[in-house]
Amino acid sequence: MNRRDFIRNTGLTLTGLLLSPWAAYAFPNREGETLVPFADQPQDAPRRGLLDWSEFNSFITPNNKFFNVSHYNRPKIDPATWKLEISGLVENEMTLTLEDIKSLPKKETNFTLECSGNHGFPTFTGAIGNAKWGGTPLAPILKKAGIKNNGIEVIFFGHDSRKEKIRDITMPQNFARSMSVEDATDENHLLCYEMNGQPLPQNNGAPVRLIAPGWYGIASVKWLKRIEVRDTRFMGRFMGRDYVTIREEKRPDGESVWMETSVGRTKLKALAAKVTRIGDEYRIYGAAWGAPIKKVEVSIDNGPWQEVTIEPRDDDEFAWKIWHLDWKNPTTGEHTIVARAIDTSGNIQPEADSDYIKGKHTYWESNGQVIQKINIE
Ligand SMILES: Nc1nc2c(c(=O)[nH]1)N[C@H]1C(S)=C(S)[C@@H](COP(=O)(O)O)O[C@H]1N2
Ligand SMILES: [Mo]
After folding, report:
1. Is the full-model pTM beyond 0.90?
2. Is 103 helix (H, G, I), strand (E, B) or coil?
3. Res 48: pLDDT
4. Mutation test of ligand 1: which of 113, 174, 222 has the most ligand atoms closer than 8 Å to its C-beta?
5. Cα–Cα distance between 220 and 128 in angstroms, integer?
6. CB atoms within 10 A of CB 239
7. DSSP-assigned beta bridge partners for residue 130
């Protein structure tokens, strides 16, 4: 396949705009612009189910383009008989049906869900999407259940299960993740049954999943079965063994400490998603997320950091910001493009070769700056 075949028209035609239900979320593309592909993208990589950044043109990721990550099976649950148990160290144990949950106050949150493994290895760069998640807040339900004073941990169990082995013990396990009582009672968590105005799809956790805005994807437990309060820390596979980030940290005295931590809240990150052109007018589009974004900067060929234009959308605390930068008259030949996000506290997204990123020996939480190569002909 020659290069030209990769240069696809990404401009939305007027008919496309009128027919597309996502048109309201499309960000301003330039009529007639064509894609200039990055040079080192894995063209034949197994992209199935992952976001294709070269087609990035909408604030909302449509349900049929949203990535999926499932570690066990993908249970098919009858919504009519499904029940959610809330039990353990609570004053009032509860069993909620889907009808019960739908009859509670509804809240919708735009939240960019990123798998913490995203960008952990070269062919896994599209495990991210942004959706309008609809459901009811979890906090009032936990309040009604009444967490007892000795309850310190809230465990979210999914219906999906598989055999797990530790040493010589093999046991059936359900997918499960936990949070401290303080984290679990955050007012932003949703018991979610809708995705972009449609019933939550099976692969995304139907009939009800947790949506934990501000947390990596692993926290948003799908196919919810039971929420259980306990008086000890939970150390299931996805808390204590898998999704454990191992970082080699240098102490001031030079001692190296290998720190093992459970994947939790999202981290500051930006990415140049695609480059387009109309004649010699080049434009870089991208996204930034993971923390409250103050600004995004781009460096071309290791040149000075240039501030980009961010699409105004200040009502969405947990959604990615869309940005662009015009690139005037690039010379022919190979160029590098790097974007970095800066949050409202002034933190800068770490460089790919920083100690912070290089000292990380596992692939989760890879929020280093992404260097893109591009050939201008
Ligand atoms: N029950 C259950 N919930 C789960 C998972 C899973 O395997 N089982 N995977 C988690 C991970 S690692 C991610 S990244 C997100 C992915 O959500 P999505 O499939 O809706 O994109 O779901 C999380 N919730
Ligand atoms: Mo994930």
Report:
1. yes
2. coil
3. 65
4. 222
5. 13
6. 21
7. 112
Residues near ion ligand 2 (Cβ under 5 Å): 69, 115, 217-218
State the distance from the centre of ligand 2 to the C-alpha of 28, rounded, in angstroms: 30
Strand partners, 109: 133
Task: Write the CA distances from 202 to 119, 207, 221, 222, 238, integer angstroms.
Answer: 25, 7, 13, 9, 21
Residue in this structure with the two tokens 């493009």, named with its chain if needed:
337
User: What pLDDT, on a 0 to 100 scale, did the predictor assign at position 314?
Assistant: 66
The pLDDT tens digits of the residues spanning 99-148 come to 999 999 999 999 999 999 999 988 899 999 999 999 999 999 999 999 99
Q: According to the model, what pLDDT value does residue 300 have? A: 98
Measuring CA to CA, which residue among 76, 204, 208 is closest to residue 138? 208
> Is the Cβ–Cβ distance between 259 and 246 less than 8 Å?
yes
Looking from the CA of 23 toward its CB, the CA atoms found within 13 Å total: 11
Sorting pLDDT into bands at 50, 70 and 90, what band is 14?
Answer: very low
One-letter amino acid at 27 equals F
pLDDT at 4 over 50: no
Mutational test site, ligand 1, from 48, 69, 133, max ligand atoms within 8 Å of CB: 69
